[in-house]
Write a structure and sequence with these properties.
The structure holds 3 protein chains of 3 kinds. Chain A is an alpha/beta fold. Chain A is built from 14 helices and 22 strands. In chain A, helix 1 crosses helix 7, helix 3 crosses helix 4 and helix 4 packs parallel to helix 5. By secondary structure, chain B is an alpha/beta fold. Chain B has a single domain, classed as TIM Barrel. Chain B has an 8-stranded parallel β-sheet. Chain B starts with 30 loop residues before the first helix and ends in a 12-residue tail after the last helix. Chain C is of the alpha/beta class. In chain C, the strands form 3 sheets. Chain C has a 5-stranded parallel β-sheet with strand order 7-6-5-8-9, with helices on both faces. Chain C has a 3-stranded antiparallel β-sheet with strand order 3-4-10. In chain C, strands 1-2 form a two-stranded antiparallel sheet. In chain C, a hairpin with a 5-residue loop joins strand 3 and strand 4. Chain C is globular, with a radius of gyration of 19 Å. Classes of the chains: A alpha/beta, B alpha/beta, C alpha/beta. Chains A and C meet through helix 8, strand 19, strand 20, strand 21 and helix 14 of A and strand 4, helix 9 and strand 10 of C. Strand 19 of chain A pairs parallel with strand 10 of chain C, so a sheet runs across the interface.
Amino acid sequence: MTMFEYAPAPESRSIVDIRPSYGLFVDGEFADGTGTPFTTVNPATEEVLSEVATGSDEDVDRAVRAARRAFVKTWGPMRPADRGKYLFRIARLLQERAREFAVLETLDNGKPIRESRDVDVPLAAAHFFYHAGWADKLEHAGLGPAPRPLGVAGQVIPWNFPLLMLAWKVAPALATGNTVVLKPAETTPLTALLFAEICQQADLPPGVVNIVTGAGETGRAVISHPDVDKVAFTGSTEVGRAIARAVAGTEKRLTLELGGKAANIVFDDAPIDQAVEGIVRGIFFNQGHVCCAGSRLLVQESVHDDVVASLQRRIGTLRVGDPMDKNTDLGAINSAEQLARIRELTAYGETEGATCWQPEGDLPDRGFWFKPTVFTDVSPAHRIARDEVFGPVLSVMTFRTPDEAVAKANNSTYGLSAGVWSEKGSRILKITDQLRAGVVWANTFNELDPTSPFGGYKQSGYGREGGRQGLAAYLRSDS
Amino acid sequence: MTHVLDPNALADTSGGAGTPPDPFADVTRSNDAFRAFLHGLPGVDQVGAEARAKVLGTRSIKTTAKAWAIDTAISMVDLTTLEGSDTPGKVRSLAAKARRPDPTDPSCPAVAAVCVYGDLAGVAKEALAGTGINVAAVATAFPSGRASREVKLADVRDAVANGADEIDMVIDRGAFLTGRYLDVFEEIVAVKEACGPAHLKVILETGELVTLDAVRRASWLAMLAGGDFIKTSTGKVSPAATLPVCLVMLEAVRDFRAATGRQVGVKPAGGIRTTKDAVKHLVLINETVGTDWLSPDWFRFGASSLLNDLLLQRQKLRTGHYSGPDHVSVD
Amino acid sequence: MSDRLTVRKTYKLYLGGAFPRSESGRTYEVHDTKGHFLANAAWASRKDGRDAVVAARGAFGKWSGATAYNRGQVLYRVAEVMEGRAAQFTEEVAAGEGLSTAKARAAVDAAIDRWVWYAGWTDKLAAVLGSTNPVAGPYFGFSVPEPTGVVAVLAPQRSSLLGLVSVLAPVLAAGNTAVVVSSKERPLPAITLGEVLATSDVPGGVVNLLTGDAAEIGPWLAEHADVDAIDLAGAPAPLAMELERSAAGTIKRVLRAPAEEPDWSADPGLSRLRPFLETKSVWHPIGV
């Protein structure tokens, strides 16, 4: 044997006990929903994992009333330091049960266990830990001497980082004294329901966190409930528009974290090996199901061929397959629906004249899969250069001068994130300044941290999550 | 698995001594030109390189893959003793270990080489006669390299005359760090010439070069000068071999072969003590330069205590239970 | 009383640094609170709105790219020039809003002071709203506030100068450029303000003042894909809701109007700066 074949290294799923069915988590208890239940499947195998309740309008109403009661009676009046302690408890419980969450996330979402284990779950815990500390320091947040909570927050989150997005929503809401009705995505409800158990273990007062599962109708009920004071949504720009319309004319406060089509700019003086890693991380992290994914590679013409060759060689080493295998780099596409969308947009790429490249190798027979894909010869007019694919598909374009790079990078209706690679400090700062994007990674990509505000420019949304700036979304300020 | 080194594996196909292979033949025309070339290599972002090495370090190598990796790692060991207290007896004992690392298991592969000071190369040569295991000798005023070129070359010739198949030289870090790249280059060329038929490993002493940019430049310098291997460290300076350093050196040999057609080996040395460390390096090779380097002809571990840990892990895999230090020999 | 016949002012739009008439050729009569004719004002059309957006977008790069110190000096200059024109503003405010000269003068003074206040903010925003982010890794992380872009401002209907300055100045202080629809009934101070801006080193196109009806131009601005944000201060409730809905189509930042037009003399804090600022977070590795 001269090849180094890695033997299968599957993470054990026995650590997690998936129940055959789940109810809604309302007022501190699990309860049946009154809507028609739905199933959630493992996208890597199409195996049905569990049946989950659908929250109807009445269920949502019950949840909002529970949240209101908790806001008025327990959570709102509570000493801020004690609110913080509950959040610290939750952070610790997430750390203690990290492996369980990682396994469940990978089963329900299809992402590689390496990522759920090393990124999603630790970051979720970090978000609670970070915000816990804010609970009794809000007067120092720069929002005036006595910022006040808004009340009940209705939160709707996507399927790409189910637990992490929950943390991004719930942690700041609770730290600032609000209570929550959260709707997880219908394809990935399970870690949110496991999180409900964490709330119980933490003795969080009933009604502070309510989790109502279901599809779009349930989400609509949450955001349009008249007693919801604050709406927070992460998801597609299309749904974001509908939510903004629904909230118009009300007193509800709104933050939106929507789509992206980030430019990742590689100058000829870049640290090429690290840039190639950054490109890979930028577009293939989490199968490209990342709103801030670096899906448009802008590479200086003089190094285009070298970069593309290195990139293809590197992509050839990506391990695509069983998400539960600890050595897997690229897992399953989250749903048949998303796979269809990726296929549709990549088909456009080919008909529009771009050159499609995929590495050798087979994909599993069952489940939803898409190979890492690179399009070269892409023109800025192509749909794959403009539309968010939300999959492992990279569009490569070139530029000649810094001005051209910036112009092309900013030529998008989105403005969530961007990347720039160069060893020249002053250039980094100039380009960073000129990019119209909410997060700019220089010589790195897709790094996230609770202390770093995250959110978009333009049609990528408004409001920030994380950092001191993120607190503003959940507080009423007198100044 | 017993590995016999391919005598032609390291055949030098470049032009005359002192001339870098095409397309780099003219980069050493002056120190300024050489400096421009080396500083024109793409930079290395330390954080990115470390992050990449760290992710590769999380690979889970189990069962059959682990068994393969352990045997491969054993076959790549340059079993080393480089102490002032070394004696012929110690070297002979090491040679015995090199031939049959695990006396209880004849299926255990032999190591690649025994690495000693030049004065003991003859003892090692005799003890390893007919085994296919090479004798490597450190030379050029190892480990500091602080001696005149005449003394260094004499050191090399002496080691070769004593029977060394491989010479592990140190570069002049002082010259490198002050930008006298051509001096370093010419010294390597001279040592290579003094080696005659012996293969040359060029120790960069990356712990003294400090930055990964310098590691990349030194790697290219050594390869252009005709080194058959580039080696991280003497083992006398900390930090010695680290995964990010090895990653950058692997990228260098990969890019060098792509540009010149000439393959150069890599040898991390010092600080690699556990099977886990060794396996991480094999993963690094596998996913950076590919399987072409997964052979003792192209990759070595400069180590002493590593071998025993590999043997303990090997016994564990074979027997299914954990072994203990008394089940491997103290050398 | 002098028997000299006064030279009256023709009130036009202020657009791209120039004072054109409405492209539609329309004007409307402006009266004081007692119904006396004051002047004819240009009646801006949707096409004037469109042109104003083009001008504002064109000016954005230079204005947002100017140093904060420079923007602060320019805004301070606006206050200086206004001070010299205080009598004229007072007369227009008194007539338009039906205030005594003293009260009108107080409103003008407050408006001037508001420019001074915001002039001082330009180079403090980054320090107050930005941050360095102690991320858990070898990266230097920082966040800076940056202007949102082109902001459509529907100016308050009642407070024709202080209200106008109170909504416009923060937009500019944050580094945005503006398309402003003035109070419909009380448009004259807006155009006089335009004359001040034109002589105060505010680059052309940074502020574009349209006199006319927010209900007519507002919807076009709310739907305009090249407008990044909209301030609904001067939109009555039903219109405000319609505009907010329209703005959703392009994910505009919307600053809602309170039910009643507020007392503009109150300290605004950061409440009118935050809505028109984005936060950009930057990461860079720390290594050797």
